[in-house]
Amino acid sequence: MMKKRLLGLILTVAMTASLLAGCGNKEAAETPAASMEQTVETKDSVIVAMGHGSEPEAGFDPAYGWGAGEHVHEPLIQSTLTVTTTDLEIAYDLATDVQVSEDGMVWTVTIRDDVKFTDGENLTASDVAFTYNTVKTTSSVNDFTMLKEAIAIDDTTVEFHMEKEYSIWPYTMAIVGIVPEHAYGPDYGSNPIGSGRYIMKQWDKGQQIILEANPDYYGEEVQMKKVTVVFMDEDAAFAASKAGQVDLAYTAASYSEQTIAGYELLAFASVDNRGFNLPAITATTNAAGTAVGNDFTSDVNVRRAINIGIDREQMIENVMYGYGTAAYSVCDGMPWYNPEAEVAHDLEGALALLDEAGWVVGEDGIREKDGVRAAFTLMYPASDSVRQMMAADTANQLKTLGIEVQIEGVGWDVAYDRALSEPLMWGWGAHTPMELYNMYHTVEGGMAEYSPYANEMVDKYMDEALAADSLEEAYEFWKKAQWDGETGITQEGDIPWIWLANIDHLYWSRENLNVAEQKLHPHGHGWSVVNNVDQWTWD
Description:
By secondary structure, the protein is of the alpha+beta class. It has helices spanning 33-36, 125-138, 169-173, 234-242, 300-309, 312-320, 347-356, 385-399, 412-418, 434-440, 456-466, 471-482; strands at 4-6, 45-50, 82-84, 90-92, 95-101, 106-111, 147-154, 157-162, 198-204, 208-213, 226-231, 248-251, 263-268, 273-277, 284-285, 291-292, 324-326, 360-361, 367-369, 372-373, 375-381, 404-410, 425-428, 497-503, 505-510, 513-514, 537-538. The strands form eight sheets. The chain has a seven-stranded mixed β-sheet with strand order 9-10-11-2-12-25-13, covered by helices on one side. A five-stranded antiparallel β-sheet has the order 1-5-6-8-7, covered by helices on one side. The protein has a four-stranded antiparallel β-sheet with strand order 17-24-14-23. Helix 6 (312-320) crosses helix 8 and helix 11 (456-466) packs antiparallel against helix 12 (471-482). The longest helix is centred in the last third of the chain and has 15 residues, at 385-399. It starts with a strand and ends with a strand.
């Protein structure tokens, strides 16, 4: 066995979570009467309203997206090997020790020996290995291509053999819930057995789930013994709050000027960012016949001018009623964030950049250069009113620069392909550096996946980050990928994406409900708020 080195993990057992699911747009369902019977007088229970998109379509099975995917979160029902802390460092849950071989190709994890599934069976390393080998085979949501196989060495030791070096493996271990090998089958998602803080007692699809505290839980005592999550649209959630039927309900900024007797509006900071891509190559067509690149946005001075020409604070006030923070990257506030990404609004500087680059203002007020008009279509998801308003605000602001922007609502069935040649208003943000990698690193074909862009040095830094000896060392490489003093993806570099705002996640909460301290919420507006619901209390 190769000599092992200990990663720079926080060697404490922590039961914090990064739970999240996105908002949906299904028809509102009536909240079940059983849930409505739960009142503030019950001091150890809580009713939380989430959007329909927060309900996992494939059930509560980690192999099919529960705890993974775009909306990365820790499952409440299952335990994980590691967790993320409030400052998004790594801590231990099931794990008691994590080591990695000198070549980075074997991770060895020692787990607790006092954990039982809720059916009374012991949780062992065999269950851990089974879980990871299963998600590698079946998961269509999370990427497990870096994992070759998991092997149980004994009851408390599991080895992860990797296909390639992957220094941020502890972040993956924080979202994969461990399932019981002896009780796993096709209907597991509907009847999950785990070892986490809660047991799923009831699931009325399209309406609610009911969680009850696991009496045999090995961690810190659960304060909220019963958690009912009801699924409804925003209007219904607001009405349920006004009627006193829920204790905490997600809401939108458009409701923020309302008041509800006995409730307060909570605003939680996020890395749930909104921004748009700017194709960084000239227009062409790929092998599949898809339009790729844009003759206007391929000019780096155009991209730099747009980045400093947009007044983010103005947009936050106009569109989000002030509930948001300016965004400059896909990883604002993360341990791997490089503050060199931050820029000040500079209208005069933006105009000067365009002038110096030869983009001349025409008689109609729109710039032109070498027969190319300073114009593009900015798409947004047709069902997302906030992104529509942000697109409209962007168009209004860029007109001041002499840039013509038409906005168009589109479906996701065409958005991905069209974004290869036209900007699209996106939503991103996760508790893992892989969000940065997935957006900016080149893939097969020599371009990044979501918008045409390539920089060999940026790729090199991110590859070095994955091969780093520790998380702390990896963070420095992730920062260099953003800007190393000479090149990167920030203002003085290639700036292939324009980041606008991180959206505050808003909730109506009963005044005497004490919601525990939240970590930065990732993309989505749902499960992240209950990351530590077990530690909520009532006055």
